[in-house]
Amino acid sequence: MNGLDHASEVVMLSGDHVMTDSRKVAEAFGKRHKDVLRAYRNLQCSEDFTRRNFAQCFEINSLANGKPSPLIQMTKDGFMFLVMGFTGPKAGEIKEAFIAAFNEMAEFVRAQADGALQRWEVAYVEYRADLEHASRCGKDLSIWRGRRLVHLARLEKLDPQIKLPLLASEAA
Question: Domain range holding 49?
Answer without folding.
Answer: 7-117
